[in-house]
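User: Could you walk me through two proteins back to back? I'd like the raw sequence and the structure tokens for each, with a short line separating them so I can tell where one ends and the next begins.

Assistant: Of course. Protein one, sequence then structure:
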Amino acid sequence: MTDRDLDDLLALAARQPPLPGPDLIDRVLQDALALQAVLPQGPAPLGVAAARPGPLARLSGLFGGWPVLAGVCSTLILGLAVGYLSPATADYLTGGGSAEALDLFPSTEFLTTEG
């Protein structure tokens, strides 16, 4: 088969699109009629306003949903705990009492000196 034969075959297929069979059309129409019976008929009443999401729902939508927002909040709480708890407090929480507090800045004079 040459390229020209393939081009002719594809051109013939493009001119004659396949038609769905009658059984497929019947099944699609039956499904559509069954769904129409389930859906409410007519427009919504004029006095009824659409429910507006609350502020927490809108906030969770910004983050991508409730699971993502829960992960962000958990990370925030962990970050605050790690940032503000001193080593002595962490030692107290873990049950030990003999460890000394770690002094990260033994002298704070470097903050007040010039030059």
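----
Protein two, same layout:
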Amino acid sequence: MDSKPKAFNIISPGTLVIDALHQLNSVNLSYLIVMDGNQYKGIFCERDYTRNVILKGRASNTTRVEEVMTVDLPMVELSDTVEHCMNVMNTHKARYLLVFHDQQFLGVVTIHDLLRQVISGKADVFDDLAQKLIDQEEGGGKIY
């Protein structure tokens, strides 16, 4: 969460879907955090629009975000590891995880956030692998 900027993609539950879509477009993200004051309420994302508005024949200019948003996302703690978060995401087949600390909503972790973390740590992984291969070659082992 430290590497993420402060959330600017926040919307209220009573916002019309058409306005939420304009905001999604302007922030260039796939989701908006639905907040009522300081209280987390849900996530509105592109998938909510396609599944809960378009496929159900609702109108974007009369439907409110609170009617179609996702409210049942898995939660993780600030102290959870990237690996744990990836496992939770995979188990729940979710694209977003809610981050809480002491029951306070801190933000959202996306699959892209996790991939960025994995990629940023890849140098360590590849450096370790390269060193093992060098050690193996110097020890007379063959590399295939």
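The helical segments are 17-27, 46-54, 65-68, 82-92, 111-120, 122-138.

Let me know if you want the two compared in more detail.
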